[in-house]
Amino acid sequence: SDTFERDGLTMNFASVHRSLEDVAQSIFAAGLLIERVAEPPDASEPPGDRWRRLPLFLHLGAVKPSA
User: pLDDT by residue (tens digit) across 18-48?
Assistant: First the structure.
């Protein structure tokens, strides 16, 4: 959890880190299949920046299989 102050506003951020395996198992336990995976880069960071190598987001597309 982190607290930041900017322009007179205080913002609190809390994050919970989960392994990719935990996320995938939750999707499978819900009866879904992973259809696509993407790690979009942060376009606001200059090339070669740390966050280009360590993406902040993981997008997963999941579908319910037809019976």
Answer: 899 999 999 999 999 999 999 876 666 666 6
Distances (CA, A) of 3 to 6, 27, 40, 50: 10, 31, 25, 22
The SS3 of residue 8 is coil
Report yes or no: 12 and 1 within 8 Å, Cβ to Cβ: yes
Q: What is the residue-averaged pLDDT of the chain?
A: 85
Q: Long-range pairs for 3-8 at CB < 8 Å and ≥24 separation?
A: none
